[in-house]
Each structure stands twice: as structure tokens, then as C-alpha cells.
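Backbone-to-sequence.
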């Protein structure tokens, strides 16, 4: 079974992260496949919307695969390469000409929140849990998601969300501005007023609106600023505190 499932329906491209037994965390293979899918949508798709969610009921995405990350503990160049690839993936999602939506169907933690930050709209199930928990592990945001999200939230709420490292309920995440709307499930999402309206608007309107937003990001050197976030975070990944936290998480997963 593929780690990423895709299909198209009603002028919408759907992407499902498909590692539910691993919290839909992202390893190198999934990162590569996601990059290929996003590139293909950018070049070939005539869709109006792109929707990404996690397979299963419990997890949207819990960030980077810890075993993948831990193998880089003695390889700073390897870790930098992986994180920059994730940065590029998040950036390419943000730069898609279509309107993009992620549906947070369960836990979105760490890098999973950075991935969600790439989308124009974030919807969440009522039982979703959302947390930039990187701070609890002794690291900052490291895939460029912090820089990208700053473009989309007011500074006070953005700083609270990232610096608290709390895990928020879906309702709390909506109140602070990270989530736009709550939806019962993916089927209900299709009936939400915004999506129904977006589907009825000519494609060229969406493309023009998104082009204006993308122009702003290009003029503001967004990609360079995201990469600077990645590079500046790398040394903290090799702290004893962070490596110890990863070891403890892996042991819990293996029980």
C-alpha cells in the first residue's frame, strides 16, 4: 500500500497521508512521494482545490518519522538535507496556484503543524489535537513552517502558539486563529459553505487571487527566509536534550 493516496473528484485533488499505524509521520519515502505529487498537480492538474488529510481517524500528521531523524544523529549534513527537502515541500504546497485546504482529522504535532501551515485554509475535526510541540523537545520549528505561518497569523497569536508548545483542542486552535473552521468529518467538509462556494466560482478567479498572494511571498523572499529558519535550527537538533527526547519517544513507540 502506498504511503500517499491520491485521487481527483469534482475538480478537487485529494491527498491522503497513509501511515496511520505510525501516526502518519513523514519518512524519506513519503517526503519524496509528496514532492512528486505536488509537482504533478502544479504542472498538470486543472483542479480548483487541493485537499490533504490523514488516513484513519486518529492522526493528521505527527511530524517527521523519529527513526528517520534519529539515524541522522551523527550526520549533520544528512539531517540538513532532509529538513531542507521538507522545507521545499512545504514551500511548494504554499505556492500551488489552486486554493489549498488541509483537513486535520486527528493529532497534528510538531512538523505536522508545519505541514498544515502550508495550506491556505486549515479545517479540523472536533476531536483534533494540535500542537507545535517542538519546544518540548528542545528545538524550534525546523522545516520553515514557522516563517510561513507568520505570514498568515497576527504576531501575538503566532508567538503564543509556537512558544507555548501546548497541545490545543480544535476549538482552542480555532480561537487562536490557526484553524479556520471545524467540521465533523471529511464528508461534511464537502458541504461547508466555503468549499461549496469555491466550487461554484470560475477557476480563473481562484488562480488570480492566489497569484496576488504568491506575488507578495516572492517579493518578500519567503523561500530564503524559510531556509534560514531550517539552517539556524540544525545545531539544536544535536543537543543532548533533544536526542534524549527522541530516544524516549522511540522506546514508547516500540512497546
Amino acid at each position: 500500500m502506498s504511503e500517499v493516496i491520491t485521487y481527483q473528484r469534482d475538480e478537487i485533488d485529494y491527498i491522503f497521508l497513509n501511515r496511520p499505524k505510525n501516526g502518519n509521520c513523514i519518512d524519506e519515502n513519503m517526503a519524496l512521494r509528496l514532492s512528486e505529487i505536488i509537482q504533478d498537480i502544479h504542472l498538470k492538474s486543472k483542479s480548483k482545490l487541493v485537499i490533504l488529510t490523514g488516513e484513519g481517524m486518529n492522526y493528521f500528521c505527527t511530524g517527521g518519522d523519529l527513526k528517520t531523524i534519529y539515524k541522522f544523529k551523527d550526520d549533520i549534513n544528512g539531517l540538513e538535507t532532509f529538513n531542507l527537502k521538507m522545507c521545499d515541500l512545504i514551500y511548494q504546497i504554499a505556492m500551488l496556484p489552486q486554493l489549498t485546504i488541509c483537513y486535520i482529522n486527528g493529532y497534528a504535532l510538531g512538523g505536522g503543524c508545519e505541514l498544515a501551515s502550508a495550506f491556505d485554509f486549515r479545517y479540523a475535526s472536533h476531536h483534533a489535537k494540535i500542537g507545535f510541540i517542538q519546544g518540548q523537545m528542545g528545538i524550534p520549528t525546523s522545516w520553515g513552517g514557522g516563517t510561513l505561518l507568520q505570514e498568515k497569523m497576527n504576531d501575538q497569536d503566532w508567538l503564543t502558539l509556537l512558544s507555548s508548545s501546548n497541545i490545543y483542542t480544535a476549538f482552542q486552535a480555532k480561537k487562536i486563529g490557526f484553524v479556520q473552521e471545524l467540521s465533523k468529518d471529511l464528508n461534511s467538509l464537502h458541504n461547508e459553505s466555503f468549499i461549496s462556494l469555491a466550487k461554484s466560482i470560475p477557476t480563473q478567479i481562484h488562480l488570480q487571487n492566489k497569484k496576488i498572494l504568491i506575488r507578495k511571498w516572492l517579493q518578500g523572499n519567503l523561500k530564503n527566509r524559510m531556509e534560514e529558519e531550517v539552517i539556524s535550527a540544525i545545531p539544536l537538533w544535536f543537543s543532548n536534550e533533544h536526542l534524549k527526547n527522541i530516544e524516549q519517544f522511540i522506546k514508547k513507540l516500540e512497546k
